[in-house]
């Protein structure tokens, strides 16, 4: 049996590895992107993922209407992500404009309330279950390939963050001891390790595009 990582596509082949996937400890992670064991699925099941539902014009319009209800903080994040998308396409002028808009919304946003790891994991789960599929279906209906790509990247980045949260809930500060946190400056993929991956598992940019998160107190 072969198991596929839903984030980077790494294949765990039981025949080659000589060990059943089920026998791996729950602390085992993907050797390529660091995703948790829970991010893997049998190859056949991964190949038969149902397509996103086709939305009608009315539902697409509703999705666009929902964008008007986003908070200043959410709009800041959205514009920041659009800026990074422009950077990926070497559109520096457009990227600068999106960053300026993102900064404006960030300044207008109220102070964020403290939230725990559990609440954050729930919100990420909601995004993966309904948020990204809904937006991706609307983008597909509208023929918006740019938004579809953002959804693909965003879904994978959210999935890896959720698996990192799962590890942190299980291992605590020991997970971060003697290591560093790296974030891809293009898509936001987050990696825990002494060195960043040679290529981003999500957007495929080289290691020098990763930024090390500084200022974390050691455990």
UniProtKB/TrEMBL annotation:
CDD domains on file: rubredoxin, rubredoxin_SM
Matches recorded under InterPro entries: Rbr2/Nigerythrin, Rubredoxin-like_dom, Rubredoxin_dom, Rubredoxin_Fe_BS, RUBY_RBDX
GO molecular function: iron ion binding
Annotated ranges, domain Rubredoxin-like: 2-43, 179-213
Source domain of life: Bacteria
Keywords carried by this UniProt record: Electron transport, Iron, Metal-binding, Transport
Signal peptide residue numbers: none
Cofactor: Fe(3+)
Pfam families attached to this UniProt entry: Rubredoxin (PF00301), RUBY_RBDX (PF21349)
Keyword Cytoplasm (UniProt): no
PROSITE patterns cross-referenced by the UniProt entry: RUBREDOXIN, RUBREDOXIN_LIKE
PANTHER family, sorted: RUBRERYTHRIN
Protein name (record): Rubredoxin
Lineage of the organism: Bacteria, Bacillati, Bacillota, Clostridia, Candidatus Pullichristensenella
């Amino acid at each position: 049996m072969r198991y596929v990582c839903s984030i980077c596509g790494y294949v765990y082949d039981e025949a080659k590895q000589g060990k059943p996937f089920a026998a791996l400890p729950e602390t085992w992670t993907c050797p390529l992107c660091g995703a948790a064991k829970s991010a893997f699925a049998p190859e056949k099941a991964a190949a038969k993922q149902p397509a996103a539902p086709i939305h009608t014009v009315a539902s697409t319009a509703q999705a666009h209407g929902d964008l008007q209800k986003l908070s200043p903080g959410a709009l800041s994040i959205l514009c920041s992500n659009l800026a990074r998308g422009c950077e990926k396409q070497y559109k520096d002028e457009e990227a600068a404009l999106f960053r300026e808009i993102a900064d404006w919304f960030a300044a207008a946003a109220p102070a964020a309330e403290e939230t725990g790891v559990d609440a954050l994991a729930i919100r990420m789960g909601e995004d993966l279950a309904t948020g990204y599929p809904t937006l991706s279906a609307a983008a597909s209906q509208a023929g918006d390939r740019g938004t579809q790509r953002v959804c693909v990247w965003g879904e994978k980045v959210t999935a890896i963050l959720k698996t990192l949260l799962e590890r942190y809930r299980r291992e605590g500060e020991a997970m971060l001891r003697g290591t560093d946190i790296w974030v891809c400056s293009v898509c936001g993929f987050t990696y825990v390790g002494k060195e960043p991956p040679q290529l981003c598992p999500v957007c495929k940019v080289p290691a020098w595009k990763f930024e090390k998160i500084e200022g974390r107190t050691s455990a």
